[in-house]
């Protein structure tokens, strides 16, 4: 199947059209294979002390510089800015491990168990924009890919319960095939799942979720003072630590320091 592939960097009118139509973009060549490999090794360290099973760990940016750098990557941030404007935060960072020879995950939309996004309105609003850095080659199906249903963020009906319960296939599932270092950027409303992984090497993916600044962070209850102190002004702002003078009518958030 074709990929909704766009160039790294500026968010063009065509990028917007592709994103609005399918609900996601694929950006190739964001990381060099060496950079992705460095982030892969960092991911391994993050997951080293837990059982070797599918799982996600937050806040990897605290201890791993190669993961911190991805927070505001120049190939990706302009796309996020194009969609959210000048005010947004890093709502969460999840580093996902899928063990070698694992099966498919469950179908879902990203959201919340409390007043889920699809209760807010139709079409499901863009509240969590996820940039997924592929730290392994996923050139063919069965390599720990992500599978997405194009345009499903606009569907008025949910994916049928029986398909979800049995983790079944659909005729319109798109298994994303892309090389190491690519980024998948997708809307919370797109139905998606982890696809099967037939390979021998565990798969790690570094996910960065961006939201409007009024959304509460999910991978932390509070920011680490040490991290805020030593990181860059842009990353500090993305942690939600930018100036927010008390002012009513939602006018209070300062733009991010784009320079
Ligand atoms: O397999 C993955 O890395 C991503 C899992 C997923 O779909 C999610 O975290 O929403």
Main traits of this protein?
metal-binding; 2-oxoglutarate-dependent dioxygenase activity; iron ion binding; 8 helices; Phytanoyl-CoA dioxygenase (PhyH); 9 strands; 259 residues; Jelly Rolls; alpha+beta; globular
Tell me what the structure shows.
This is Phytanoyl-CoA dioxygenase (PhyH). It comes from Actinopolymorpha pittospori. Keywords: Iron, Metal-binding. It holds the Pfam family PhyH. One of its GO terms (molecular function) is 2-oxoglutarate-dependent dioxygenase activity. The structure is a single chain. It is built from 8 helices and 9 strands. The chain is an alpha+beta fold and about 260 residues long. It has one domain: q2cbj1_9rhob like domain (Jelly Rolls), CATH 2.60.120. The strands form 2 sheets. The chain has a 6-stranded antiparallel beta sheet with strand order 1-7-4-9-3-2. A 3-stranded antiparallel beta sheet has the order 6-5-8, with no helix packed on it. It starts with 12 loop residues before the first helix and ends in a 21-residue tail after the last helix. The model has no long low-confidence stretch (mean pLDDT about 95).
Indicate the topology.
Elements: H1 13-22, E1 24-27, H2 33-47, E2 55-58, H3 65-68, H4 77-84, E3 89-98, H5 117-120, E4 129-134, E5 146-148, H6 161-165, E6 174-175, E7 183-187, E8 192-194, E9 203-211, H7 225-230, H8 233-238
Antiparallel strand pairs: 1-7, 2-3, 3-9, 4-7, 4-9, 5-6, 5-8
Bound molecules: 2-oxoglutaric acid (AKG).
């Amino acid at each position: 199947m074709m990929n909704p592939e766009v160039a790294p960097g500026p968010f063009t009118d065509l990028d917007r059209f592709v994103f609005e139509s399918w609900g996601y973009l694929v950006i190739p060549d964001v990381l060099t294979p060496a950079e992705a490999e460095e982030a892969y090794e960092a991911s391994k360290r993050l997951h080293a002390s837990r059982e070797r099973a599918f799982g996600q760990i937050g806040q990897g940016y605290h201890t791993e510089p190669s993961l911190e750098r991805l927070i505001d990557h120049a190939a990706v941030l302009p796309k996020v800015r194009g969609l959210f404007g000048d005010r947004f935060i890093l709502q969460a960072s999840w580093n996902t491990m899928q063990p070698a020879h694992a099966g498919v995950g469950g179908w879902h939309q990203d959201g919340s168990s409390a007043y889920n996004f699809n209760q807010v309105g139709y079409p499901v609003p863009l509240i969590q924009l996820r940039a997924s850095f592929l730290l392994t080659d996923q050139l063919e199906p069965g390599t720990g890919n992500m599978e997405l249903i194009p345009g499903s963020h606009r569907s008025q009906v949910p994916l049928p319960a029986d398909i979800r319960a049995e983790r079944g296939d659909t005729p319109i599932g798109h298994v994303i095939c892309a090389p190491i270092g690519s980024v998948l950027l997708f809307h919370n409303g797109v139905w998606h799942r982890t696809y099967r992984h037939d390979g021998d090497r565990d798969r790690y993916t570094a996910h960065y979720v961006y939201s409007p600044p009024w959304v509460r962070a999910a991978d932390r209850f509070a920011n680490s003072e040490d991290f805020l102190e030593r990181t860059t002004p842009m990353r500090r702002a993305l942690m939600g630590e930018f100036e927010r003078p008390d002012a009513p009518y939602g006018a209070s958030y300062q733009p991010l320091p784009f320079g």
